[in-house]
Design goal:
The protein is mainly beta and 252 residues long. Helices cover 13% and strands 65% of the residues. It has an 8-stranded antiparallel β-barrel. Strand 2 and strand 3 form a beta hairpin. The longest helix has 21 residues. The chain starts with a helix and ends with a strand. The N terminus is likely disordered.
Length: 252
């Protein structure tokens, strides 16, 4: 009985298909189901932007002051940074996203300030340069479809170079350091395809105060037994705005 019913149904379908073909009616195309967009993926990308900041130099020991006649200085820095980032995100609700990201930038955020040294009736220059910024941060985002607003924060590192000298090059102090601190920022990201996105981001870096050893191997340094080492306290912060692009691996 079942075989008879199934056979009749199949024959009916064939008859209908043949009749539709005779009338020139094409069968309905198969429907393609497009999966909804998700931020759950890992990514890698590049970024570029500009930065600015402030650095304060103070001599709390007195060795630098006795040698140069200068006890404090400050400089406002600015410049550019280029770099890359890698990370992973997980969208655990229709709107909320969490993730982790590592970033590394190289460039030049610095400036040179001319300083009067009345004690020695002299003029000196203080140059500060930040060569790189690195960070490992967590981020939390609020997404609506392919747009996401996010905040981020974590640990950061900066690489700095300093140079301080008088106009006659009687003394010339140099110092370098890699310093740990923290960073916090926010941004907006737009996925213009399922695999590519662009983002605009602001980050604030705070590196606090740290003692940096300046060494002088010029005339004064040689007379005191070169290299002459003078510890100086430096306090600094940096702010950066970047535009970036990310390639996202296919969703998990």
């Amino acid at each position: 009985m079942k075989a008879t019913v199934l056979g009749g149904a199949a024959a009916s379908l064939l008859t209908i298909s043949a009749y539709a073909a005779d009338l020139g009616i094409s069968p309905a195309p198969p429907q393609v189901v497009v999966p909804p967009f998700t931020w759950t993926t890992c990514y890698a990308g590049l970024h570029a932007g500009g930065g600015w900041g402030h650095k304060d130099l103070t001599d709390s020991v007195g060795i630098f002051t006795a040698t140069t006649g200068l006890s404090s200085a400050n400089v406002d820095v600015n410049g550019y940074m280029l770099g890359g980032q890698v990370g992973c995100d997980y969208q655990f609700t229709p709107n909320w996203v969490v993730g982790i990201e590592g970033a590394l930038s190289g460039g030049n955020i610095g400036a040179t300030t001319t300083i009067a040294v009345p004690a020695l009736a002299d003029t000196a220059s203080f140059k500060s340069t930040s060569d790189f910024l690195a960070s490992v941060t967590g981020r939390v985002g609020y997404a609506w479809d392919r747009w996401m607003l996010y905040g981020k924060g974590g640990v950061a590192m900066v690489g700095d170079r300093y140079h301080f000298s008088d106009i006659d090059q009687i003394y010339a102090f140099d110092g370098t350091e890699d310093r740990l601190g923290w960073t916090a920022g926010a941004g907006i990201e737009w996925a213009f395809t399922p695999l590519w996105s662009v983002k605009l981001e602001y980050d604030y870096y705070w590196f606090g105060q740290r003692s940096v050893s300046f060494d002088d191997s010029t005339i004064i340094g040689a007379s005191l037994g070169a290299p002459f080492i003078a510890p100086v306290n430096i306090t600094q912060n940096i702010q950066v705005v970047t535009l970036g692009v990310n390639f996202h691996a296919p969703p998990w």
